[in-house]
Amino acid sequence: MSEPTSAPQTADAADAEDGRVPVTVLTGFLGSGKTTLVNRILTEQHGLRIAVIENEFGEVGIDDALVLDAEEEIFEMNNGCICCTVRGDLIRILGALMRKRDRFDHILIETTGLADPAPVAQTFFMDDEIAAQLRLDAIVTLVDAAHLLQHLDEVKPEGVENEAVEQIAFADRVVLNKTDLVRQETIDEVVSRIRAVNALVEIIPAQHAEIDLRRVLDVGAFDLDRVLKDDPAFLTETEHQHDATVTSVGIDVPGELDEDRLNGWLGNLLRTKGADIFRSKGIVAIAGESRQYVFQGVHMLLDGEFGRDWREDETRRNRLVFIGRNLDREALERAFADCLTTAGTTAGTAA
Amino acid sequence: MSGITSADLDTAWDVAVDDAPVALSAQGDLVAVAGAEGTVWVLDIATGATTRALDLPGGLLDVALAPDARHLAATGPFGYALWRRDDGLTTVSQTGAWSSRAIWADEGRVAIASGRRALVLDPDGGELWSTETAASTVTDVAWMRNGRRLAVAAYGAVCCYERHSRTPVVTYPYVGSHLALAISSTGRWICSGNQDASIHIWRTRDGSELTMSGYPEKVSRLAFDDTGTWLAADGAPDVTVWDFSGKGPAGTAPRSLSAHETITALTWRPGSAGHLASGGEDGTIALWHATSGLPQARLSPARTLDGGGAVTALAWAGPDLLIAAHRDGRVRAHRLPQRTRL
User: Fold this and answer.
1) How many other C-beta atoms lie within 10 A of the C-beta of residue B165?
2) Nearest to A78 among B196, B220, B328 (CB)
3) Which residue does chain B place closest to A123, by CA atoms?
4) What are the chain B neighbours of A78 within 8 Å (beta carbons)?
5) For A89, which of B137, B217, B312 is closest by C-beta distance?
6) ipTM of this complex
7) Domain count of chain A?
8) In chain B, what are the domains?
9) What is the pLDDT of residues B66-77, one digit of tens each?
10) Contact yes or no for B181/B221 (Cβ under 8 A)
């Protein structure tokens, strides 16, 4: 995996039992309730043996849990590619965890409030030792309903990313915490702003970080079949658009794709625009292939494999979503349509 | 696969410890086995019997016996410990800092990676000197110039220190994270295995650099043989062996040693015969005439041993005894026929 900017090539992972240990990444600003949630996860009776990697030093062992401290160490690579930026501290700590005889059932990584989620996510793509044994299950972002709008609207100096926007963009789940402290109108506004950035994300309202842990632990958020089947309408919905620079572009087009053209387009797109594309996900139909091709990416890194068979009665279609900065919906739709086998004869049409 | 593929080497002993071993050290009449959860078992090299066990709370990452086997240093995610054989005294330093490596300069001094610094301690734990803070947690340390100079690898550079100076006497910068350090016994070459799937090489004489890139995975194991002319590395299913004789490996191709899917241990047999032992995730141990054939040759093992669980560490106790630790807790001593043969 983790071949930068390459599309369909890792086949045959279809229904193989994934024995890798799931990892949840918990992001969110200071005061959003991360510590409360971590404590819930550590103390609630869920029967899981959990290792927690957090930023405050705490050599705490609660029952079957192990808590390790991590001071953020960002490693860039010699080639200067931003997608190759990884978290050295996590590589080190996860490596040591994997050398233990007794496996943990789950690993939880809590980042600092201002942490960039990209190097955390990229670590799971870039490091083969980790990728072979651990599976990034979900990026869960906690937000404070009362303060999110303020964080999202905070104007940053040129070239500096708004961390709140980034954390929403990367999220597979957003826990909208402290809903008891705001009025319904505010909640509606906050939800709409979250959707404007990340159209597909599942939003879980909560008070005092009280949520059903099954909605954030081992949820298979990277299981795209589930993510993308939820509500395909979200893929092309535009009414949520706010004047934000970070948005989602969904594509839902029936038909089959020419593999070479898809490779060429996706490779080129991520190579040239990867710095601006935070997340990409898709389930597509490749011409002549009986199985779905499922991919997901973080910036320029793409991990794809063939998934389940297309069913007899199922329409072969292509569902993709890009979450990023300054995305050009029309250009993406047009370029994608050119990858359809029918391109040139009849133009692909958006559903 | 050619060569002898049976476990017909004498097994000197075969014991089990109650943990997954992560590191081994053999010196004199002792073998130390570090378990991931924090116990060091000190074994008698002749029988494998446990003579002593000590604990470092929070787990272990490395263990090193002093050359005279009178002291031992053990390191882990939360600190380090020193053990004195004479009276069994164990001194635990729970620094809270990640200690990935311990390496003895001689029987009187040990270098310990401790968070973003390296410490040089006397055998009872007294601090002789320490380095300044590196850009990241120290990943590896190695002695040079007969123990007068200490090379410290971390993110962005390999820095060399000597006792008289708190700042580096030489810095070898490189944008990237160094995971493993190997320095030739000739002192001519410093090599780092890197997170970016490369080996970076400096010639110490003039600081000139060379990068061996194109490895499919990060290079986290790297070792020079006793002569300082052969470097073995992981980073691919095949072990690569580079020839550092003459002007070095620039423009040359390595030999590839093909036996494992995933390499989990590498260690040269003491001596100058070019014999290497490697271990794999599948539990196989392979023994190699690693320097035979031509550059670019793909070699098969001279012998393989099936050990069971994944190999986690290998160590030579002299040229005739190879100690192997497996994730399932088995520790075996394999006796080799004679020093010129595998």
Assistant:
1) 12
2) B196
3) B195
4) 174-176, 194, 196, 198, 211
5) B137
6) 0.91
7) 2
8) 19-274 (2.130.10.10)
9) 999 999 999 999
10) no
